Amino acid sequence: MNPLGVALSLGGVMLMCAGAWWAEKLSAACVGHHRLGGVGRRAGPRNSRADPLETASRLDVAAAALRAGMPVAEAWLVAMGTSRTTFLLRLGAGPEAWAELAGDPLIGPVARQAAQQQRSGAGLAAGMTAQAIRLRKLAADEATAGAQKVLVVLAAPLTLCFLPAFVLVGLIPLALGLAGI
Question: Is residue 151 classed exposed, middle or buried when 0-12, 13-18 and 19+ CB atoms within 10 A define those classes?
Fold first, then answer.
């Protein structure tokens, strides 16, 4: 047993273990920024930022209800559930019912159009469908950006741990063996 070979092998194995641990921690941190559904979700209040895909689905339901002939208040109740806006709409409030949602980044465009629609009679279902399409595109763009971030972040352990480990465990012992050391 060559002590240099043992030292190189030990160093390479340590680098590979460190790289595997590092890559696991980085990928868990990247995935942890996104809300995961299903069993094992954290109890308590949800993320303050609403899910664009869920909001898009709810807007599609509201648009379908409006196209089917439901009144705006009932369509909003079916799609979005009970809220201050829903109660105000059911009580017959005008554009002020939508004021609370006008600043929301996901539903705001629909709320502003709905407030205008009550004044002018513009079609609300088409606006809801268009906003749902925009939200789906936003969610797809966020998913793509997240995937690209994971690829960039996971390149660090590969570069700093796995490649030096390959050199220490694979190439240097081969070169030492060929050199007869």
Answer: exposed
